[in-house]
Design a protein that fits this description.
mainly alpha, about 70 residues, 4 helices, single chain, about 0% strand
């Protein structure tokens, strides 16, 4: 595993956001994150708090099937 430079991570991240959200919404996302006090670690910990492990697994498998059929 190679460690990517910060600049490369920024480029790859913006490309991923742009690909999935579109350019305008990717820029809006970045603006929202910068504007608000945002604790990514806390957000991630709470993201699936209401779901069981089986529900998370089921949703992940359904997502994978949708991506494969695209």
């Amino acid at each position: 595993m190679t460690i990517k430079a910060d600049a490369e991570i920024k480029v790859l991240g913006f490309e991923a956001l742009s690909r999935h959200l579109g350019l305008v919404e990717a820029e809006r996302f970045i603006a929202l994150v910068q504007r608000e006090k945002f604790d990514y670690t806390q957000w991630r910990q709470n993201l699936f708090a209401e779901l069981s492990g089986e529900e998370i697994s089921s949703q992940a498998m359904a997502f994978q099937r949708r991506k494969q059929s695209e």
